[in-house]
Structure formats: C-alpha cells, structure tokens
Amino acid sequence: MAKWMKGQSGNINGRPKGAKNKYTGETRLKMEKFIYQEFDQIVEEYRSMKVRDKVEFFLRVANFVLPKLRAIEVHEVPEIEELLSMSPDQLQEELIRIETELNNRKNGKQEEEETY
C-alpha cells in the first residue's frame, strides 16, 4: 500500500522555487567534464561541418551555456515634465507602484509569458 494518496506527497509546500534538481546538477557536471576532455575533437568536427550544420550546432549548444531570456513587459515611464507636474501624493503613489513592480519582479511574481 502506498504511503501517500495519488497526487499527494509528504512535502505539502513542494520543492522551493529555484531549487535545483540534484540530477540536473550531476548531469551538468558530467557534460562539462566531457566537453572539457573532448574539446579539441569537438572543435575539429565543428570546423569540418557545413555552414548550415554549424549554425544548428551553435543554436543547440547555446541552450546549455547561455542563460534563458524571457520577455519582459515594458511600461511607459513618466517623462520628467509629468513627474514635475505631480503633486506630492501623486509622486508617492508612483513611487509605490514602481517599488511594488520591482519587488514583484525580484520575487518572481511576474508572469512567465509576458509580452513586449
């Protein structure tokens, strides 16, 4: 008999946001070691590829070595004249809005699929 019911686990909070999968880390280290050891052979093979294959190779490898970029939502920033014309209360509201947005982004509360 299972210890937990289907769809449940012993960790009600789940894995913490940003926690690394230990197997992913191990695999990454193995890949780094392999690439380091076989680098000269990889470069030799790369040089013998056709241009189209070089581009495909580069794009595939880039997924592993470059950080993933995500779209961000661009908000209209008030012009200086607009800020100068605001009352102290309006300026305070604008500062709170900006601070809240920055905190949300820092805490990862922004939607993953944002648009430009």
Concise synopsis of the structure shown:
The protein has two domains: 22-68, no CATH class; 70-109. The protein is 56% helix and 0% strand.
Task: Please provide a written account of the structure.
With 116 residues, the chain is mainly α. The chain has two domains: 22-68, no CATH class; 70-109. The chain is built from four helices and no strands. It has helices spanning 22-47, 51-65, 80-84, 88-106. The radius of gyration is 24 Å and the shape is flat. The model is unreliable at 110-116 (pLDDT under 50).
Strand count, sense and barrel status of the largest sheet are: none
Helical region count? 4
Number of domains: 2
Order of helices and strands: HHHH
Compute the CA-based radius of gyration.
24 Å
Helix content: 55-70%
- Secondary structural class: mainly alpha
As residue ranges, the low-confidence spans are 110-116
Distance between the termini: 51 Å
In terms of DSSP E residues, the strand content is under 5%
Overall shape: it is flat
Write down how many β-strands occur, each being a DSSP E stretch of 2 or more residues.
0
Determine the mean pLDDT: 77
